[in-house]
């Protein structure tokens, strides 16, 4: 039977690549994002369904699930991917940004999991993939909101895996190092300006400082999508509750 996947933040970057990979595998895709034009366009390209939602709002999380089920009658795969970055010291970190980050990157994955639970169990081979980061496992200064939210996903992933197992539901946390997406390209340009060095040098020295694969410092979104697709395949039936680290040995140091 055809499966249905809901991917948050799928108008861009990693989420978009995951949606494209699923569509190639004839999985029906639901693109959830707050960017309407881009989200519609991706949905159209992939013959999927678009739901505009601001996932910092619990009601929008609820509606994303309801509209998916109204459209397709089922939900088999949930990819909690939407996120953003903010760089500041703990002392200067704006409270509003903190609340928004936790709402989007920790509360929304919990709420979407909760609201989707019945359908994922009914699927019999439900899959949840949370998109974490190396910052789910390690920390960097000036990223307090991001690091905290991404660490929180470790706990969510483990509990969901423990409770879902008896229903065939798996839940994993994919933890990539830097991936070439608009989120990171903006950071490269910002750091290039701040440090007064070329973007290529930022990529090599700042972003690639801890990775070890020769000539490769950043992943492409498709690299993450391939891994996510595997975790959602029937072959990955026993892989659950785990941190799926893809970081070119960053955290091996
Ligand atoms: P991106 O900026 O390309 O995409 C993020 C998407 O989330 C955008 O389409 C944006 O519109 C959407 N979004 C933001 N706020 C939203 C909201 N309130 N409601 C609904 N949608 C919203 O970023 P990306 O690099 O593809 O990041 C995707 C995920 O991957 C994030 O969780 C990020 O933390 C994680 N990640 C990224 C990297 C990297 O290096 N790019 C590395 C590790 C983890």
Automatic annotation (TrEMBL):
**Alphabetic keyword roster:** Oxidoreductase
Q: Which GO terms describe its molecular function?
A: oxidoreductase activity
One GO biological process this protein is involved in is: monocarboxylic acid metabolic process
- Pfam families named among the record's database cross-references: adh_short
InterPro entries the UniProt entry points to: NAD(P)-bd_dom_sf, Sc_DH/Rdtase_CS, SDR, SDR_fam
Which family would the database say this protein is a member of? Belongs to the short-chain dehydrogenases/reductases (SDR) family.
Q: What is this protein called?
A: Short-chain dehydrogenase/reductase SDR
Organism, as annotated = Gloeothece citriformis (strain PCC 7424) (Cyanothece sp. (strain PCC 7424))
């Amino acid at each position: 039977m055809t499966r249905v996947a809901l991917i948050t933040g799928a108008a861009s970057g990693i989420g978009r690549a995951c949606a494209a990979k699923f569509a190639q595998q004839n999985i029906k895709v639901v693109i959830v994002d707050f960017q309407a034009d881009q989200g519609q366009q991706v949905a159209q390209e992939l013959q999927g369904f678009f739901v505009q939602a601001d996932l910092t709002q619990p009601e929008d999380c609820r509606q994303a699930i309801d509209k998916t089920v109204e459209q397709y009658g089922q939900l088999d795969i949930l990819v909690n991917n939407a996120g953003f970055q903010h760089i500041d010291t703990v002392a200067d970190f704006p409270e509003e940004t903190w609340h928004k980050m936790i709402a989007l990157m920790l509360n929304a994955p919990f709420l979407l999991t909760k609201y989707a639970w019945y359908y994922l169990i009914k699927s019999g081979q439900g899959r949840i993939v949370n998109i974490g980061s190396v910052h789910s496992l390690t920390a960097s200064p000036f990223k307090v909101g991001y690091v905290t939210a991404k660490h929180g996903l470790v706990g969510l992933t483990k509990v969901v895996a423990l409770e879902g197992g008896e229903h065939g539901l798996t839940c994993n946390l994919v933890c990539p190092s830097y991936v070439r997406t608009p989120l990171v390209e903006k950071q490269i340009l910002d750091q290039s300006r701040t440090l007064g060095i070329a973007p290529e040098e930022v990529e090599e020295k700042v972003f690639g400082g801890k990775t070890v694969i020769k000539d490769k410092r950043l992943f492409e979104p498709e690299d993450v999508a391939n891994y996510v697709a595997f975790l959602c395949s029937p072959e990955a039936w026993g892989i659950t509750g785990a941190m799926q680290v893809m970081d070119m040995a960053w955290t091996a140091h």
